[in-house]
Structure formats: C-alpha cells, structure tokens
C-alpha cells in the first residue's frame, strides 16, 4: 500500500481507502459479517483510513467501524460527516448545540474519544457563505473533540468557497472519469492551500465497473433505483449525474482502459490516483471480493500521457453534456 500526505493534517493515509455508505445501507441487501470481513481484509492490506457518515444506515456504518477497529484506534483513521440527519437548510442544524450533539453521537457510535476528521455533509452553499458553522467547528477542535475538519461538497464553487476558511483541512468531491471538472480549478487551488482531497463516487455508482447492461434492475432500497433521477438527494451522487442508460452506453466505450489492468474497476481507480492532488480514493464495498478487487488498483500499470489525453477528450466531447445537477 502507498500512503499520501493528507493535506495540512498530521495524517498520512492509504491512497486506496474505503467509504462505508454501502455497508450501512441504501445499496441493496448487505451482510454485517461480510462487511466486517471486508474491513478486516482492507486493514490487513494496509488501509488505514475509512470514510463514513452519521446517516449511513442511521449510524450503522459507524458502529461497524467501531467493531472493526477496536484496539486499533491509534492506527486507523476514521472520517465521518454530519448535518444530513437534520434539515440541511435550517441554520439551527449548524448551531453549536446541534453540531456538538452530532459530534458526541458519532463519538459514541465509533467508541472513540476524538474524531480524526469530521466533514459537513454536502450543505447548501448559503451555509458555507454564512460561515458560522466553521466557528463552531473551530471551538470543537479547541476542545479536543475533533482533530481536523473539512467539507463534503457537490460543486467546484462550494469547494472553492470552503477553502476560503483557513482551517478547512479536507474536501471530499465527486471525481471519476465521468466527472473531471475538479481538475481544472479546484485541484490546483487545493494544492496551493494544502487541502487534502478525498475522491468519492469513484466508480460512478458502479457504471465504471463495466458490469451493467441497460436492462439491469436495482433493488428497491438501493439509491441507484430510488435516486436515479435525483428524487431523494443530489442526482450527482448517483451514476455521477448521468442517466443510467447513457452511462452504460458511455462505459461500454471505455472498455479499452482495462487492457493490461485486469478490469475496468482497477483501471478507473488507477486513473483517479494519477492525479497528485488526490490524497485518497474511497470506493465503497459490500463484499470481501469487492475489497480485494479495489485493492488491486494500486498495483496496475499507470496511464500514459496519450491515454490521459484520450480520456480528457472523451469527457469533453461525449460525457460532460449529459451530466445532470449542479457540479
């Protein structure tokens, strides 16, 4: 496993880490036993960072991480998120009382005395403009309840605005072959300000695995069914904002990236790691097999400059115009 400096924090984190939305819920049927085995396999391979949120399974993914990392609290970093358990548009959701409550509840579920990183979970831009929530987080940091804080954002504009606060240590952004916009402006700004970048939705909700046909049916409780058109939350969080059928069509045109790299999954993750602004890529998983497949991305061949240019041109010419939602 390779490790990268996580922005201005005191952490070096595994460049291939894992998100835990899928094992918490909203991705169809899951097994806690399989999830715990997957977390153990990841840690055995050197993964020292996991991303979660208080709303993933109503805290269930945090509880699973507590079990998986028991006795390893000083070696395994956990990032969580807050605000979406409340009304994200209500300023009171970001009050000192409310945020302290979110933090303390996450600490209880994670069975930790301090959060390594807490992120505001995709708040409306007016909350970021107001800025009061950052003052609250500064206070919690001074109290020792959190080590560092950051923001999970939907758009480049939100990311740039967040970084105007000097104590924002990390940004979590949607970034994959189908969502390349952060490269031009956000990533250079993050490098200049020494802000760590976590790349989420790296496989475009599975589109970039190349495993789906247009007729594929997702389970009722899978967000790829109930949020495919943005009916539950930001459409960009599902299939990177692409209509499913168009996403399948576009992924079929990318089969060539798997050549010499095993499969599309590994290739798509390796492409993200080709960007030095990225501190870590955080694919999700539900099975040990998926963990192992994702881990293999670290060792596959790099993309040549010609291949990188081909993928940039592909995004500009064929993908960008089909993305829905703000980004």
Characterize the structure shown.
The protein has a single domain (3-322), classed as Alpha-Beta Barrel (TIM Barrel). The protein is 36% helix and 14% strand. It has helices at residues 21-24, 32-44, 60-68, 96-110, 125-130, 132-142, 156-162, 186-193, 223-226, 244-252, 264-273, 288-295, 305-319, and strands at 3-5, 12-14, 18-19, 49-51, 77-82, 115-121, 146-152, 168-174, 196-200, 280-281. Strands 3-4-5-6-7-8-9-10 form an eight-stranded parallel sheet, covered by helices on one side. It has a two-stranded antiparallel ribbon with strand order 1-2. The longest helix has 15 residues, at 96-110. The mean pLDDT is 96.
Quick structural gist:
By secondary structure, the chain is of the alpha/beta class. The protein has helices at 21-24, 32-44, 60-68, 96-110, 125-130, 132-142, 156-162, 186-193, 223-226, 244-252, 264-273, 288-295, 305-319; strands spanning 3-5, 12-14, 18-19, 49-51, 77-82, 115-121, 146-152, 168-174, 196-200, 280-281.
